[in-house]
Write a structure and sequence with these properties.
- This protein is mostly helical and 133 residues long.
- Among the domains are: 55 residues; 37 residues.
- It contains four helices and no strands.
- The longest helix has 31 residues.
Length: 133
């Protein structure tokens, strides 16, 4: 039974977080149907957590520690993945360096291809008419 509650909660959270088109159709029907299930799942999960924490503080603390370890492990995996992508021979840093070098070459070619603009003819200077003549 607890599996069904967790499934409903997580599926409801995913459906409520998705970017649904606003033009109606089946997507808006699914969102309208899933909204009460999400609210009910959240309430049931909060009640289950509250009940577990009130009945057994040790289980509550252990569950919080597990969640903390899971979040830390996920953050470490993400950091490791990013670091390995950066350090790989064809990784992000190498691609960025290549892109930077190409953009510098393109800028240099653009500067070399520029021709100086022809000099504009001098503008005529308006001379004031004398009032006495």
């Amino acid at each position: 039974m607890f599996f069904l509650l967790r499934s409903a909660l997580w599926l409801g959270l995913v459906f409520s977080a998705m970017d649904w088109p606003r033009d109606g159709g089946i997507a808006s029907d699914i969102q309208a149907i899933s909204a009460p299930a999400v609210a009910q799942g959240r309430a049931a999960m909060a009640e289950k957590i509250r009940k577990t924490c009130l009945e057994s503080m040790a289980d509550c603390i252990e569950g919080a520690a597990r969640l903390n370890r899971l979040a830390t492990d996920l953050a470490d995996q993400k950091t490791t993945a990013v670091a390995s992508l950066r350090a790989a021979p064809g990784g992000i840093d190498a691609l960025l360096a290549q892109d930077h070098e190409l953009s510098r070459r393109e800028q240099a070619a653009d500067l070399q291809s520029l021709q100086p603009a022809p000099a504009a003819p001098p503008l005529p200077v308006a001379r004031p008419k004398s009032l006495g003549r």
